[in-house]
Amino acid sequence: MNETVGTALIILGIIFDFFGCLGLIRFPDVYNRLQASAKCITLGTCGILLGLFCHKGLTATGIKALLCMAFILLTSPVSAHALARAAYRSGVKPWEGSVIDEYSGDMDNIR
Amino acid sequence: MAVAAAIIFLPVPSMMTWQSGFLARSFLCLFFSAALCLYRVLRGPTAPDRAVAIDMLGILIVGFCAILSIPTGRDWYIDIGIAWALQSFIGIMALAKYLEGKDFDE
To answer: Do B63 and A75 touch (CB under 8 A)?
Structure first.
């Protein structure tokens, strides 16, 4: 039973990882690509690690998988936010089909 | 699309005689995702595109290590995954600081 649930979670995670990489290929802009990759981390790799926890149970490996999942959930939004900020400040313009760009008005106040 | 269908339906190579074909197929699917990420690293028009793709590759490698510890039965793969997540985070933060045009101590 535990192995069935774990394998289902792993397959769900792999499907989400694949869709995230497809978004990395198909989206037109660095900010859209960043959005795709950040979504794929949350349910993709954390799904894989949760499946590993369901396989292994409350052993040392399972606890390590939960710790790794907590670490990734804490750090991946931070790195995604830093990358978006760095991309904007290094001069990458948003895609011409994007609707609103509120950060451009704030740039003079920050610097 | 044809490559995805080939991953799902073709028989897996005899190199991967693991306990279930499911995990071997999922491993091939992760390989294909990593190849897509490498395409974005090579082709990306700007430097932040490449940085995003490298971030994604680090996360995929953590998934690789987590999956590898199931059929092989070796528990230290997840230790490699934890260490890889840590160094990937530090590297991406340093890369973001560099792209922003600041020094590292700022």
So the answer is: no
Task: Kindly give, in sequence order, each residue whose CB lies less than 8 Å from that of residue B78, ignoring residues fewer than 6 positions away.
Answer: A52, A61, A64, A65, A68, B65, B66, B69
pLDDT in tens, A13-23: 988 988 888 88
- A99 pLDDT higher than 60: yes
pTM of the model: 0.81
Q: Residue A61: enclosing H or E segment and its boundaries?
A: helix A60-89
Residue A6 falls inside a structural domain: yes
ipTM of the prediction: 0.84
How many domains in chain A? 1
State which residues form the domain around A27: 2-94
Say yes or no: B41 contacts chain A, CB-CB below 8 A.
no
Kindly determine whether residue A10 and residue B99, on different chains, have CB atoms separated by under 8 Å.
Answer: no
Residue A109 inside a domain? The answer is no
A-chain residue closest to B82, CA distance: A68
Measured between alpha carbons, how far is B57 from B84 in angstroms, rounded to an integer? Answer: 11
Q: Which residues of A touch B92 (CB under 8 A)?
A: 79, 82-83
Within-domain flag for A102:
no
Q: Is B23 on the interface with A (CB under 8 A)?
A: yes
Angle at B40 between CA B23 and CA A82, to 5 degrees: 95
